[in-house]
Amino acid sequence: MLDPNNLSTSKQPKFKFLIVDSGPLIKGVDVRHLAEKVYTIPEVILEIRDKHSREFLTQISFDIETILPNGEALKEVVNFSKKTGDYTSLSAIDLRVMALTYMLEVQVNGTKRLRKEPVKSLTQFGGNHKNLKKAEIDTSVPQDDDDDDDEKGWITPDNIMEYQEKEQILSVKTKKDESMDIKVACMTTDYSMQNVLLQMGLNLVSVEGARIKKVKSWVLRCHACFKITTNMEKQFCPSCGGATLIRTSTSTDMNGKVTYYLKKNFQYNLRGTKYSIPNPKSGRNANNLILREDQKEYQKALKSHRKQKEVDIFDPDYVPKLLIGSGSSTSCGAPVIGYGRRNPNEATQGKGKGKKRR
After folding, report:
1. Measuring CA to CA, which residue among 10, 39, 11, 5 is closest to residue 25?
2. 225 assigned to a ligand binding site
3. Which residues of 255-292 are buried (b: 16+ CB within 10 A; e: fewer)?
4. CA distance 1 to 59
5. Which among 105, 98, 100, 118 is positioned nearest to 193, based on CA atoms?
6. pLDDT for the residue numbered 156
7. What is the CA radius of gyration of the chain?
8. CA distance 67 to 147
9. Which intervals of the chain are annotated as region Disordered (predicted)?
10. Is 299 helix (H, G, I), strand (E, B) or coil?
11. Is the pLDDT assigned to residue 7 strictly greater than 70?
């Protein structure tokens, strides 16, 4: 646990305004040296219920000002998060924290660097492979030109000092411009918030105070309709309803561009498609295949799974039922979709019939 009394506050603030989420405060991150003023919303303070985090928050020597965002900023954030597909993964508190960041950014810098629409996403196949369209365009062989044989554009012993001076001035200029640009920033550990903030053009910083220029995470991509969902607990596509969701890596850079990394020559698993599915059976123990989200078997299994997840295994009075001889030995995982990992096309060894009596 960090001791607030031993933390140094002599560092010069990097930002004018810093908006913090509950994540950095729960982790005990000292943000006194990062900004001149630290803001949040009242709900974030109420979210911090951990004893150590509350003590850290009360003992630390800086004041966190609580402000409510205006309705216009909240409307902009809600509309943008719906366009990126992160709206369902965000809570009301997350939306208000981002709305506060948006409101302060507009007050300080205006809306010139903010985006109204998400940047078009890019799909990259095979990791380091370049775009095929670009490769097809650049396949033509360039013609030789005698004018290119001079020393223009080349670094020679005569002009090397001049090039070094230019590069030095350029690097110092970019560092100064970048530090002067960041007046309002948001600190959060939630991926959905980070994704929306970067795509909107708002500044995002890590818990160490460094500017985050790229966020990497995972999403679920439907192999049938190619729709993307950020809800990693989904088992069925929210668009077409099929059980065709595949985990896909993605990244979002500071320019708001979202890139999805797909495996080259990917072969979809066709297990269980050789023979027709069995007809549904009636009865309590029918054990029918789950093929859609609205099936009563799936809803019943999902409800049971959620109840099992609510059991607190860190409770000192909690004893697993299997240790006391009660309960069943069934797994408490998510409901099995279709045939699961079992391959129904494999021939199973049937029970041999006994010898016929004469």
Report:
1. 39
2. yes
3. ebbbebeeeeeeeeeeeeeeeeeeeeeeeeeeebbbbe
4. 13
5. 98
6. 52
7. 29
8. 64
9. 326-358
10. helix
11. no
Q: State the pLDDT at residue 151.
A: 45
Nearest CA to 91 out of 308, 251, 99 is that of: 99
Q: Which residues are CB-contacts of 194 (< 8 A; sequence separation ≥ 6)?
A: 188, 204, 212, 215, 252
Q: Is 323 helix (H, G, I), strand (E, B) or coil?
A: helix
Binding residue per annotation — 240?
A: yes
In the chain the domains, ranked by start, together with CATH numbers, are 15-126+181-209 (3.40.50.1010)
Kindly indicate the confidence band of residue 120, based on its pLDDT and cuts at 50, 70 and 90: confident
The Cα 358–Cα 355 span in angstroms is 9
Q: What is the pTM of this model?
A: 0.56
What pLDDT, on a 0 to 100 scale, did the predictor assign at position 256? 76
pLDDT tens-digit map of 76-97: 999 998 888 788 788 889 999 9
Instruction: Name the pLDDT band for 107 (thresholds 50, 70, 90).
Output: very high
φ/ψ of residue 221, rounded to 5:
-115, 130
Measured between alpha carbons, how far is 123 from 131 in angstroms, rounded to an integer? 9
* Residues comprising the chain, all counted: 358
C-beta atoms surrounding 72 within 10 Å = 12
Query: Which residue, among 223, 231, 236, 238, has the nearest Cα to 269 in the 3D structure?
Result: 223
332 is in an annotated binding site: no
Phi, psi (deg, nearest 5) at residue 194: -60, -40
Look at 64 and 95; give whichever has higher pLDDT: 95
pLDDT in tens, 12-63: 777 889 999 988 888 888 887 788 888 999 888 888 888 888 887 777 646 7
Question: What one-character-per-residue DSSP string does 218-285 give?
Answer: EEEEETTT--EE--TT--S-TTT--S-EEEEEEEEETT--EEEEE-TT-----TT-SSPPPPP--STT
Identify residue 101 by its one-letter amino acid code: T
Which tens digits make up the pLDDT trace of 143-174?
Answer: 444 444 444 445 555 555 554 445 444 443 44
Closest CA to 93 of 113, 112, 66, 131: 66
d(Cα 193, Cα 180) in Å, to the nearest integer? 24
The verdict on whether residue 186 carries a ligand-binding annotation is no
Most distant pair of Cα atoms in the chain: their distance: 109
